[in-house]
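Hey, why these numbers?
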Amino acid sequence: MRLTRLVAGVLSAALLGLAPVALASAPAHAASYTTVTEIGASRTLIEYKGSYKPYLEASVKTSEGSSVYYGNVELQANVAGAGFKTIRTVEASGYISFSDVVPAKNTTYRVLYKGGASSYDSYAASTSKSLTVKVARKVRASGNSRTFVVKGKVTPQFAKKKILIKVSKREKRGYKNFRTIKTNKKGQFKIKLPRRKGTWYYRFIVKGDKNYAANEFVMTARVY
């Protein structure tokens, strides 16, 4: 008796964010401090409307490492290359959380400390380095073990676009081009995989663009 089975597995990726640093200009007088503004994220790659958030964090400190609590901080976002715009304004601190900020497209962030002063001291303005959080399109797919038909949907903004399929006898390497398919106007796709003896891995690749990062998944087809 010959059995067939089709197993689906969706690949995802997540990268830890870095904490860029930028130094401010030199103090204007002896009573002022230079400052260091930083921004970081727990993830710099997320899926569109997925369960993970980037959890952006920032800090403003003196060059000696003391937290700064005077003045305001602006979080600016550059969405898919459209230019920086201020999306949050908060008070300066050695720890600032922007946990509610979740990009819908590839977005570059930076933090601007506007400078401030206490009764005795003043603090120079400074700007963090830029930090990019990429957003991968959401891919949902399923396979039928009886018919070997694979169907799914890519969102958002993936109508009538191409998906590259590669195939290999090994799961981790050796992939070669198999076929290119195109989604319909709703971003849906469908293909029937061949019944070939043994175990075959089909890698479906959704390419990225300036708005969204690439994503992919693997279908495993087995014929015993």
In short: The domain at 21-135 is CATH 2.60.40 (Immunoglobulin-like). The first strand starts at residue 4 and ends at 10. Residues 10-28 have pLDDT under 50 and may be disordered.
